[in-house]
Amino acid sequence: MKTYTYKKSVALFKRAAKVIPCGIYGHMSPAPLVPASDYPFYASRAKGPRFWDVDGNEFIDYMCAYGPMVLGYNHPKVDAAAQKQLKSGNCITSPAPIMVELAEYLVDLISIADWAFFAKNGGDVTSYAIMTARAATGRKKIVLVHGGYHGVAPWAQATGHPGVIDEDQSTLLRVEWNDFEGLERLVNAHPGQIAGFMATPYHHPTFSDSVLPAPGYWSRVEALCKKNGIVLIIDDVRCGFRLDMRGSAEYFGFKPDLACYCKAIANGYPLSALVGTEALKTAAARVFYTGSYWFSAVPMAASLAALKELRRIDGPALMQARGKKLLDGLTDIARSHGYTLRVDGVPSMPSVYITDDESLMLHQDWCAECTKRGAYFTSHHNWFVSTAHTDADIKKTWNVADEAFRVVKKKY
Ligand SMILES: Cc1ncc(COP(=O)(O)O)c(C=O)c1O
Question: What are phi and psi of 320, to 5 degrees?
Answer without folding.
Answer: -65, -40
